[in-house]
Amino acid sequence: MMKPHRWIATILAVVLAIALPLVANALTYEQINAIAAEITVIIDGCTAGSGVIFDRDGDTYSVLTAHHVVETPNFNSCLIVVPNGDRYSVTDNWGLLTSVYYT
User: Fold this and answer.
1) E-only strand ranges, the chain
2) How far is CA 41 from CA 16, 47, 94, in A?
3) Pairing mode, if any, of strands 49-57 and 97-102?
């Protein structure tokens, strides 16, 4: 029978063998920041807010935001400001967590 301290050492070795490759493949802070900068947009012209680009179909992009950001009778007054500063009108929205689209 193995002594308790050997069990602990064995379990620790197994955990490290599993965890270290996962840690080694993790993104750095700089990589995460670069990705976030490319997909985060400002929503302006209605209630100001932000959103995240999550899909693209040709020239139409989908942005996820909170519904209250674009909750207005005329959501077409809302503008999407993309990372390079270009502005696009919102063309559609739906839901509580709203997906808005721009082309």
Assistant:
1) 40-44, 49-57, 60-66, 79-81, 87-89, 92-94, 97-102
2) 39, 14, 18
3) unpaired
Map out the domains of the chain with their CATH numbers. Answer: 29-102 (2.40.10.10)
Calculate mean pLDDT across residues 60-76. 76
d(C-alpha 12, C-alpha 8), whole Å: 6
Contact present, 43 and 51 (Cβ < 8 Å): yes
Task: Give the model's confidence band at 77: pLDDT under 50 very low, under 70 low, under 90 confident, else very high.
Answer: confident
The bridge status of strand 97-102 relative to strand 92-94 is antiparallel
Give the pLDDT confidence of 49-66 residue by residue, as tens digits. 888 888 888 888 888 888
1-40: b or e for each residue (b if 16 or more CB lie within 10 Å)?
eeeeeeeeeeeeeeeeeeeeeeeeeeeeeeeeeeeeeeee
